[in-house]
Amino acid sequence: MPIKIMQKTEYREVIKFGNKTIDTNLIFLIKIFKRIKKGYSPLLLIVGKQRVGKSFIAVYISYIFMEMLSKEFNPKDISKFTFYDPIESIRRLNEKEKEPVIIDEAGSILTKREWYKKSHIALDKIIQTQGYKSNLYLFVSPFAIDIDKTFQKHFDFLIRVDDRGNFKVYQLFKKYDELRPERVIRRMFLEDVYVHKNAVPKKLWAAYSKYSIQQKENMRIDTIEKNTEIENPIERLKQRLVF
Fold this sequence. Notes:
With 243 residues, the chain is α/β, with parallel strands linked by helices. It contains 8 helices and 10 strands.
């Protein structure tokens, strides 16, 4: 049975992928799966304000991708596909092939304020050298500008989530001979898309939400501890100067 994903438009296409077919008129899905069939690894950047369902869209697209590959997206395996830690993501990306990779809170991992970090450089190299593995990379961040410019050039599609289930898709084109970073990328609007909340199995989304809360709490604690480590020596110095 083909996977049918339809919106209100006259355009329609059937794509064969292994022993499965996808019958859809969503232009961005057609473009993504065609790139994967040709041996590329598409990169998507998903942005939008807090609590509008950016991660839900990432899980939805990943779920369709796994369905196309006739693989089970087991809720117990959510930690194998989702990363909040740049070091852990680098280790695991070397192992993956034809799988979705969700890098949540990407603005914190690839922040422009820490462009010099070894994790930035390593992730940049992995993305450049492992395109042949046909993975699907989904980076989630509130603001696109939070992502370091040296990494922005890799993105193929930009998804802006306006409200729960509603998002706009843009295709990103690169000028490979452009020397000015701010002019390397231009975008073209593709379509408006609506996804119903039942498009993702409830158990899968529940597992993702639980894992996400745990990881964000770990990030919060880690940030507090690091900032405390920085501030403590200064406070101690101040006390010595006073007394």
